[in-house]
Design brief:
Layout: H1 2-25, E1 35-40, E2 43-44, E3 49-54, E4 75-77, E5 83-85, E6 98-105, E7 109-112, E8 117-120, H2 139-144, E9 156-159, E10 166-171
Parallel strand pairs: 1-10
Antiparallel strand pairs: 1-2, 1-5, 3-4, 3-6, 6-9, 7-8
């Protein structure tokens, strides 16, 4: 029985050492929980894609001389109540500390080119599936629904290590 316990202890030590060694070579930014709610005209916005774009690219860049997982901008999708929790490496793990511009893309978002207005469409179809749809960088889109374009969105957020990082965005 003692040799079995020693064998288990030896295996645990080897596995722990291996895991520690792997973690040292891979850099990851510290992430902090961040959540919020998206509303439009006071009503929850469901199934919208929410992206936090760092104003300083170094916020998500791997430091020089380090190796690690290249990360995209912290992103999430709202639930039926318009609530979201940001994801960076894993689902709902949060985002690196920093200043961000926030874009929101509606699941049913498409733009009527003839009217120059945002219309609610079939959620089963992609926003770009209509021949009447305009690209996100169109001047009409920027004017009528500025929240989906990085250049025109007025939404901003600050992720802080010692804060609750809860945001409420009203899309008017």
């Amino acid at each position: 029985m003692r040799s079995f316990s020693k064998s288990i202890a030896a295996i645990a030590a080897i596995v722990t050492t291996s895991l520690i060694g792997c973690g040292e070579s891979e850099y990851r930014h510290s992430v902090f929980p961040a959540s919020g709610k998206i509303t439009r005209d006071g009503k929850p916005v469901a199934n919208a894609i929410v992206v936090f774009h760092p104003t300083d690219p170094n916020t998500i860049r791997i430091p020089e001389g380090r190796q690690g997982i290249e990360i995209a901008n912290p992103t999430t999708t709202t639930d039926e109540s318009g609530a979201f929790r940001l994801s960076t490496y894993f689902e709902a793990d949060g985002a690196p500390a920093g200043e961000y511009k926030v874009t929101v893309i509606l699941s049913s978002q498409k733009f009527d080119q003839k009217k120059g207005t945002t219309t609610e469409g079939d959620e089963e179809k992609a926003p770009h599936s209509s021949t009447d749809a305009l690209p996100a960088d169109s001047p009409i889109v920027k004017k009528k629904f500025p929240f989906s374009n990085l250049e025109s969105t007025p939404l901003q957020a600050s992720i802080k290590p010692d804060a609750t990082n809860e945001f409420a965005f009203e899309l008017n």
